[in-house]
Structures are given as C-alpha cells and as structure tokens.
Specification:
- With 110 residues, this protein is an alpha/beta fold.
- The protein has a single domain, classed as Immunoglobulin-like, CATH 2.60.40.
- Helices cover 21% and strands 38% of the residues.
- The protein contains one helix and eight strands; from the N terminus they run αββββββββ.
- Strands 2-1-4-6 form a four-stranded mixed sheet, covered by helices on one side. Strands 3-8-7-5 form a four-stranded mixed sheet, with no helix packed on it.
- A hairpin with a 7-residue loop joins β7 and β8.
- The radius of gyration is 14 Å and the shape is globular.
C-alpha cells in the first residue's frame, strides 16, 4: 500500500513540476494522465506555445478536430508543442483514444 501511495505521489509531483517548468518558460502546459488532458480547457494569448506532456503508461496523440495540427504518438515522458498564432477556439482529441477531448482557447495578445 505504501508503494502505491509513493508511486501516486511521485507521479503527481512530476506532472505538477512539468507544467510549472513549461509555464515559467513563457509557455503553457497540458499534462496527459489517466486518459485525460489536464487542464481540459486552457486559455492562452496569441503567440503562446502550448506543450502537452504524456505522463500515462500508454501512448497518446494530440489531434485537432479541424486537422490543423497533429502530434506523433507520444510515449511516457514525451511531449508535443505547438505555437498558437491565430485567435480562436481549437478542439482536439487523442487520436488513439477519441473519448479524450480538450480545448485551447486563444485570445488576442496584449
């Protein structure tokens, strides 16, 4: 039981640190874990780089519903990044697990 708690605590800490590191670099981050995108909806300014990091034991992809962007399959610890240069709402799914859905909302930059 204590090994399970340690593993879960470590996984959460790594995910949080990944998102914090991305945010500190001037970008925004989405963690893929437990077959979900977290946060499911992210709002960024035009020109922001969004990075998705896979923290699941299963490969995942990031595929825009409108087909404007697509990642390769990401294994555990791998990432995909995209700079959002146009204002709008961009819905995406995992191409391997289409029940996983997310949205990037891009607002005008200041």
């Amino acid at each position: 039981m204590s090994r399970l708690i340690f593993a879960l605590t470590t996984a959460i800490a790594v995910s949080v640190l990944s998102v914090v590191a991305i945010a500190e670099s001037g970008g925004a981050g989405v963690t893929i874990q437990n077959y979900t995108f977290n946060p499911q909806t992210i709002t960024v300014a035009k020109g922001t780089k969004v990075t998705w990091v896979n923290r699941d034991d299963t490969p995942h992809t990031v595929v825009a519903v409108d087909k404007k962007f697509r990642s390769q399959a990401m294994d555990t610890g791998e990432s995909f990044a995209k700079v959002f240069d146009e204002v709008g709402t961009f819905s995406y799914v995992c191409g391997l697990h289409p029940q996983m859905m997310g949205t990037v909302v891009v607002t005008p930059s200041n």
